[in-house]
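Crash report, auto-generated. Payload:
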Amino acid sequence: MSAVREAEVARTPVRLPAARRRFADREGTLAWLFLMPSVVYILVLVGVPFVLAIGFALSDVTAGDPSYDYVGLRNFRRIFDDPVFWRSLGNTFIFTGVSMVLIVVLGKVLANIMIANFKGKWIVRFLVLLPWTTPVTLSSIAWLWMLDSIYSPIDWVLRQVGLLGKPGDLLGSGSNMYWLGEPGLAMASVITVHVWRLTPLAAVIMMAGLMAIPRDLEEAARVDGAGYWRRMFEVTIPLVLPVAAVAALFGTIFTFTDMAVVDVLTNGGPNNATQVLTSWAFFRGIDGGDVGQGAAIALFLFPILLAAAIAILRAVRRMEVG
Amino acid sequence: MVTTAAGYRRRYVASRVGVYLLAILAALLCAAPFLWSLITAFKQNRDLYNPQNNPFLFNRPATPDHITYLFQHTAFGTFAWNTLWVGVLVVGITLVLGLPAAYALARLDRPWAGWFGIGIFLVYLVPPSLLFLSLSRIVVAWGLQDSTWSLVLVYPTITIPVSVWLLIGFLKGIPKDIEEQAMVDGYSRVGAFIRAVVPLAFPGIVAVVVFAFTLTASEYIYALSFVSPTSQKVISTGVPTELVRGDVFFWQSLQAATVLVAVPIALVFNLFLDRFIAGFTQGAVKG
Amino acid sequence: MAAEAPDLRPGRTVVEVRGLVKEYDGGIGRRARGRGGVRAIDGVDLVTEEGEYLVLLGPSGCGKTTLLRTIAGLEQPTAGDVLINGQVVTGLPPRARKIAMVFQSYALYPHKTVLANIVFPLRAAGMARPERERKARWAAELLGIEHLLGRKPRALSGGERQRVALARALVREPDVFLLDEPLSNLDAKLRASARDELKRFQQDVGTTTIYVTHDQVEAMGLGDRIAVLSAGKVRQVGKPMEVYDDPADTFVATFIGSPPMNLVPRDDQLVGFRPEHLLPESAFAASVDREKVPLAVDRIEYLSGDRHIYGTVTGIGKPTRVVSRLPATVDTPVTAGETYDFAVARDRLRFFSAETGLRI
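Recovered output after restart:
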C-alpha cells in the first residue's frame, strides 16, 4: 500500500494529446494517403504507357518517323497477314503450356525434396535456388555454352557413352546434336532452360503451401493407415492445389512475357522456330523500328494473359471457399 | 499381409536413402550449369576449344587469366556497381511506397481493399514487353535515356505490385492486438504503424527486399531498351553485350561473371528463404 | 452526434455510454444484395462510477468486447455517444481518451523488453527519460515484477505477462482500465490466483475498471456490479447478488448460476427457482412458508460435496425436468427412480412472463 501512496506523489499527469481528430487517426483518409503514392506511381508508369501502347498500336509511328498518325487497325491487319506472327503465337502457346506443366509438376517434386529432413539441407537449398536467383541473361549464357554446336559437354558425354557420333548410333552419326540449330531441338532446349530456371521459384511457392498444411491432417492420415502415395494424392495435393495454382500463375506470367531465354539462346531461330510473341514484338518494334507493329504484337498478349490470370485467381478463390 | 518390424525398418532406411539420392540429384540438376561454368572459367583456350578434350577436367593447367581479364579489360566492376545501386534504390522506393500501401490494404479495413489488392496484382500481369516501347518514349521525354536512372525510375513498377502482395501477407500475420495496444498506449495509427507494426514485420520486410532485389537484378528488356552506353549498363545487359563481340564469345570470362553474380544473390536469398515462404503463404492463401 | 450537455455529477460518473449502436455491414457483396448489417451493440446505456469495478458478462458474440472496444475508441459507434469524465469522446482516437486497456493476449510488444514495454505509453506522452524510468519502476514494484524488467516477453510465464500488461496500463494513470478477458489465456490453476491479484490490484489503485468476461465465476468474484449482455443489449445491471437473486429476465436467470435457475411453465408464466432452493421437505424449518413439489428423481451426481439431483417436478406447473442442489449439510437419502417430497420457500420463487421472458 505504501507504493500506492508513492503513486500519488508520482501523479504527474500524462500529457493528453489534443482532443481533436487528426488525419493520422482517420482511417478512411489515412488509407487513401497510404495507397496514393503507389497508385500514382503505377498509374503514371504503367497506366500511361499502357494507354500509349494502345495508341502506338493504332498508329504508324516508326523509329525513323516518330510523328503520330492514326491508322486504325492497319497494324493489326498487317501482323495478322504475317505468317511469322502466327508461328510466334503457336510457339508462345507451346512454350508456355509445356513449360507450365513441367514447372508445376517438377516444382511440387522439388518442394517435397526441399522440405524433407536431411543433413546438408542448406547447401541443397542453395544449389537449387541458383537457377532462379541468377540474372536470367547470365544463366542463359551458361546454357548457351552447354548447348554449343561444337563444344557442348552434353554432346561429349553422348559421344563417350556411344549414343552419338558413329554410324548407327542412336542419335545419329554426326559429331554434334546442334541443340539450338534444329527446330524441334531448339524449342526443346528453350523450354528446358526455362523450366530449369523457374522450377525453383515454383518449388519455393509450393513449399509455402506444403508447410501450411496442418501436421495433424498428415498425421491423422498416417494413423488411419494411408501409405505415402495415398497421403500424397488424397491429402497433400488437394490441400496444396490453391498454392500450386498461384505458382502456375506466376509461372505463366514469367513464361508468357519472357524473351530473355529465347533472345540469348536462339534469337528466335532457327528460321523463327523458337520465335515467341514477346521476342517478335521486340524484333519488330525495336530492332525493326516499326513501333506501331511492335506495340500491336505486344498488345495482342494482354487479353490472353488477363483471361488466364483471372481464371486462375477465380479458381484459387473457389478452392479456398470449398 | 502383415509387415514385420524389420520390414518397416527396411522400408524406413530405403526411404531415407531415397530422400538423399533425390536431394543430391535435384541439387546437381539445378546447379550443373554453374559447376560447369566454374570449371570452364579457369580453362585455357587451347583446352576449351578442343572437342576431343574431356570438358569436365583440366586437360591443361588452370589459369586465372580470364578472370583477370573480366576485371581489367571489361566494365564488369561498373556493371556490378550499377546493378547494386540501382537495386538498392529500387528496393528503397518499393518499401517507402509499398509498405504503407500494403498496410492500408491489410489493416485499414476499407470495403474496397480486396478489389484493390487484386487490382495491384493484376498490374503485375502487364508485361514489360507491352510497356517498353511507350516507356522508352517517356524515358526520353524525361531526359533519362541512356542513363541508369531510367531503371531506377521504371523498376519499381515491377517490384511494387509483387512486394505489396507479399507484404499484405506479412502484415496480416501480425496480431491486431499489438497495434491496437499501441493506439491505446497513446500513439496515433501512424505512430502505431511505425513503432509497433514495422519492427514486428521486419523479417518479412527483409524477405521482400531480397525478392525485389532479385527481380531487379534479373530484369532484361527495360535495361536493354533504355540504356546503351557501357558505363551505364547493369550486369544483365552489360555482361552479354560486352563479352560477346559479334560471333566472338569470351566464354571463360562470361562463365566467371555468371558464377560471381549467381553465388552471392543465391546465398542471401537462401538466408531469408523461410521468411519468404512464410509471407507467401499468408499473401497467397489469405489474400 | 448531437450530444446534450453531459449530465454533470462531478467525480462520480467516469464512463458513460448513451444509446450506443454498432452495426457491422457484411462487406460490399452483402450490402449490394440489400442485406442489412449485424447489430453487435443494439442501444446500450451504461454508467460507471468512480472507483467501480464493472463487469460486462455475456456469452460469446453478445457484443461485450465490441462495447469495450467502442469505449476504448478502437471501434466507432454507428449511433450514440461515449463519455469519459463527462466529456463526449465519440470520434476521438484511443490515445485522446485517458484509458488503458489490457487485451486478452496481453499484446506485449515481443521485440521490446519488459521495461521498454512499460515505458512505451510514457514515451508516447513525451515524458522525459528519467521520469518515465522512475515511473516504470514504481509500477513494476507495485506489481512485483522488478526482477523481470530486462527480459523479453517470450521469456515470461502467463501470470508474469499479465502483470507486465497491468504495469503498462498503470503507468498511463488512466481514468479507466479496460480489461478484455485477461484471464482466459491462463490455465485453470493460475486463473484463481490471477483473479485474486487483479482484484487486489484494482482495490489498491482505486481506478475505475471495466472488465469483460464470459465466465460468471470471474464476474461474480470480481465485479462491484455486473452488466449482463445478450445479443447486443444490456439485460440487467446490478450487484452480483442482485443479478443472481433477482434476475431481470429468463436470460439472466439461466445464464448465471451453475446449474442454472429452474424454469417451470405455469399458465402464461414461468416459475423460477434456484437449484439450491429446491430441497427435501424435511430440510425446511416448520415455520417456512413453502410450496410443496413432488420430484421424480432419475439421476444423481456428486460434485465436490454437493449432490446434484436431476428429476421431473410436478405440482408447480407443467411437469418439467429440474435440478436440485443439495449441500453436504443436507443428508437426506435420495435414490434414483424414487419420488420424493421436495419444496421451495415461497419467497424464493421468481415469476417471469412466458411470452417476453421478463420478470413479473
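Post-recovery validation: The two ends of chain B are 47 Å apart (CA to CA).
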